[in-house]
Design goal:
Oligomer: heterodimer
Subcellular location (chain B): Mitochondrion inner membrane
Helix content of chain A: 55-70%
Function (chain B): Iron-sulfur protein (IP) subunit of succinate dehydrogenase (SDH) that is involved in complex II of the mitochondrial electron transport chain and is responsible for transferring electrons from succinate to ubiquinone (coenzyme Q).
Protein name (chain B): Succinate dehydrogenase [ubiquinone] iron-sulfur subunit, mitochondrial
Largest sheet of chain A: none
Strand content of chain A: under 5%
Number of helices of chain B: 11
Pathway (chain B): Carbohydrate metabolism; tricarboxylic acid cycle; fumarate from succinate (eukaryal route): step 1/1
Order of helices and strands of chain B: HHEEHEEEEEHHHHHHHH
Largest interface: A-B, 9 and 10 residues
Strand content of chain B: 5-15%
Shape of chain A: globular
EC number (chain B): 1.3.5.1
Radius of gyration of chain B: 23 Å
Amino acid sequence: MGATKLSGMQKQVLSLYRGFLRAARSKPTTEDRKRIETVVSTEFRKNSKEVDRKNFQYIEYLLRLGHKQLDQLKSPDMVSISSVKIN
Amino acid sequence: MLRLLQRRICSQAAEKVRLSSSLSGNGDFPILKGHKAAQDLSKDTLKSHETIKDKEGQHKVAKKEFKIYRWNPDKPNTKPFLQSFFVDVSTCGPMVLDVLQKIKAEEDPSLSYRRSCREGICGSCSMNIDGTNTVACLKPINSDTSKPTIITPLPHMYVIKDLVIDLTNFYQQYKSVEPWLKTRKPPKDGREHLQSPNDRKKLDGLYECILCACCTTSCPSYWWNPEEFPGPATLLQAYRWISDSRDEFREERLQAITEDERKVYRCRAIKNCTATCPKGLNPASAILKMKAKHSLPDPVKRIERA
């Protein structure tokens, strides 16, 4: 897994994931932290399986969306995030 | 039943336009005296309406093709494409925004675009229509039905969905210029910062900017350096605050905007901004005046008065 060199886009995705986990660590209660971590990790893992590696436009769109949500999450008033699936 | 009612209402509106155009000759509206951009716009609108109405007063069905840029992030595997819509322009309002509303109401509700005032003052509906960046609510439909009209989002911007783009960088650059009055002392009479009418005249052509981002997204210098170069809209507003007589931080503002080659001096005088501004403003001249103010402080006052 670590042998092949990561592309620039993969590094951006990983740094965004790291940013989310760091933001989670700064929240007051442990259950808030766990909730954020589970939501973020399921979202990232789902997208890594479903989204085609060559679909750059969609991956960049998700990265920009993720950065905006991370900026919102960093503020001390935000306690947790949740995700809803509509079929 | 509803369709019949619609036609009657539309024909009343068409009648009013016919009356006003006959009253004012060939489209000279006296209220628009002195506003060249508005006069040109009203002449274009009347011309396109003339081609639609019929001599007998009946409606001529005129179906025009509109090719609109579509991309849906909820369907990530489809690439962006131009979708064709055929709209009867004789039953539709005169501006491109009216066409978009009609398509969204009748044909495809998933078409996404920003809009608010429908009168060219909010700057929400800015998009690229037939190759030019304008606001859709002030652009009359080109009623030549043989050629399609192509509507795409503002160029070189990240697309969120269909015609909606990401303007956060643009707004952050506007914020970075500190677009508010900065003073060191409280006002002289304790209540208001007074300004003479001559000083207020210096702001004409600068304060009307609606921040639609048409000029900034038409500038090639901005396309190649969006993070660094503030763009013509931001620089126009920087000049607006520099030339405001009530502001006491003029030197600091000018210094901040001209200190390195990444702000004002990235401008290459391409002048796309002035050509495309829907309000008829001139960002290129404001940038030139700022460059002149930086290199020679006093003579610019004489040139400005002339």
